[in-house]
Specification:
Layout lengths: L6 H9 L12 E9 L7 H10 L7 E6 L12 E8 L2 H10 L1 E3 L2 E3 L1 E3 L45 E2 L4 E2 L9 H13 L17
GO biological process, one term: mRNA processing
Protein name: CCHC-type domain-containing protein
GO molecular function: nucleic acid binding; zinc ion binding
Length: 203
């Protein structure tokens, strides 16, 4: 039911059942660029402050995370891109329409679009590592038989399109782009800027 997606309704419903019950929410994800790296995305108090100054409904930001692993940042990096997940399409659309404010900075939010699955073990497209049947790791940078995080090679080779010059994670890879186009063709809602709701302006 739609009302159950509201955080307060969900808490009330869960409280009437056995202790320890958890309610999972469908996430409406947005990409927010140039977020100050000093922002603690795992801190609920900080997220509530973002909601307050951005005039968002309390509890509408369910979680936030950095897109790129923190350990891969440069020492001089001051901003980074993040994913903000909202509790409803309406809350996400408000952020997309008006932007959000983080540490006094007005930042644009855009809808996060789905990407083809890529296995971080064998690097092949179409499945995740937990489903991989391959023995041993394949590097996402040079396609060597070692984990990506232990790669010391300056050469790049893609195991998906068998081409040098880029790794398996490169979004300009012909194989990745072909899979992305096929994915978008199956999802008619992806063409819209906003998450589609009953409001005509979203479609």
């Amino acid at each position: 039911a739609r009302w159950l997606k509201d955080g307060e309704h969900a808490k009330e419903w869960a409280s009437k059942w056995e202790a320890g019950i958890k309610v999972s929410f469908e996430a409406y994800e947005t990409v927010v660029e140039f977020v100050p790296v000093s922002q603690d995305l795992g801190d609920d108090v900080s997220l509530k402050e973002v909601e307050r100054v951005s005039s968002l409904k309390e509890g509408s930001i369910k979680r936030a995370r950095w897109i790129k692993p923190v350990e891969r940042r440069s020492s001089r990096q001051r901003v980074a891109h993040a994913i903000f997940s909202f509790d409803s399409p309406e809350s996400a659309n408000q952020a997309i329409s008006n932007g959000i404010i983080v540490q006094g900075k007005s930042l644009e939010a855009r809808r996060s679009l789905p990407e083809p699955q890529r296995c971080l073990k064998c690097q092949r497209l179409g499945h995740f590592a937990r489903e991989c049947k391959r023995e041993g790791d394949m590097c996402g940078r040079c396609a060597g038989r070692h984990p990506t995080n232990s790669c010391s090679s300056n050469e790049r080779f893609c195991s998906n399109c068998n081409t040098s010059g880029h790794g398996a994670a490169d979004r300009s890879c012909p194989s990745f782009m072909s899979r992305t186009r096929a994915l978008y063709e199956r999802r008619s809602d992806i063409q819209y800027r906003f998450f589609v709701t009953d409001i005509p302006e979203t479609w």
